[in-house]
């Protein structure tokens, strides 16, 4: 079972990744970064480059868009893993037309087996308007269900808005 699971939630460009990185940097353990994004265009390549620069050196990085067990199962005590982010992970499964319930169960099982501390970043998508198309509405609903499941599993839940953390569950 993981030592500690911290779930960080916020809107796009809210400062959640920077907050998560800072939290991991102060943990005093080996830092592992689980990158879930897939780079399909120059805009995403630039965003990934900004995140790399922001994170700095000293991270072991795993690029794995879908399979949690590949990253989490080998981890052990003395490590902290930052999953950035659950939103991209879900998007990868949605666009691949995978069974989202089964994928979520696989993720939660891998989290429960993990022996390292975990910090999971995710977007809060339920604060905006109802999307106009079916795929966007399906994504918003699936993201909401995933966030609820991750928050239920987490020891600590933090919402980040404008770079400011608000602890919703547990303590930092």
SSE inventory with pairings:
Elements: E1 5-10, H1 16-25, E2 30-35, H2 42-55, E3 59-63, H3 68-72, E4 79-84, H4 86-95, H5 100-113, E5 117-123, H6 134-153, E6 156-161, E7 164-169
Parallel strand pairs: 1-5, 1-6, 2-3, 2-4, 4-5
Antiparallel strand pairs: 6-7
Give an overview in words.
By secondary structure, the chain is α/β, with parallel strands linked by helices. It is 42% helix and 24% strand. The protein contains 6 helices and 7 strands. The chain has a 7-stranded mixed beta sheet, with helices on both faces. Helix 4 (86-95) packs across helix 6. The chain is globular, with a radius of gyration of 15 Å. It starts with a strand and ends with a strand.
Short description:
This protein is an alpha/beta fold and 172 residues long. It has helices at residues 16-25, 42-55, 68-72, 86-95, 100-113, 134-153, and strands spanning 5-10, 30-35, 59-63, 79-84, 117-123, 156-161, 164-169. 42% of the residues lie in helices and 24% in strands.
């Amino acid at each position: 079972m993981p030592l500690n699971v911290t779930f960080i939630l916020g809107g796009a460009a809210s400062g959640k990744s920077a907050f998560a990185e800072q939290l991991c940097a102060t943990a005093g353990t080996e830092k592992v970064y689980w990158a879930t994004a897939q780079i399909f265009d120059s805009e995403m390549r630039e965003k990934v480059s900004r995140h790399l620069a922001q994170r700095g050196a000293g991270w072991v990085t795993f690029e794995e868009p879908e399979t949690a067990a590949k990253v989490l199962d080998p981890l052990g005590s003395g490590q902290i893993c930052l999953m950035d982010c659950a939103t991209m992970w879900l998007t990868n499964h949605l666009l691949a037309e995978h069974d989202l319930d089964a994928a979520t169960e696989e993720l939660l099982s891998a989290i429960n087996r993990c022996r390292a501390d975990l910090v999971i970043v995710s977007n809060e998508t339920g604060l905006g308007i109802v999307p106009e198309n079916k795929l966007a509405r399906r994504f918003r609903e699936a993201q909401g269900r995933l966030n609820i499941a991750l928050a239920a599993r987490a020891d600590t839940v933090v919402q980040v808005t404008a770079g400011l953390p608000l602890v919703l569950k547990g303590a930092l």
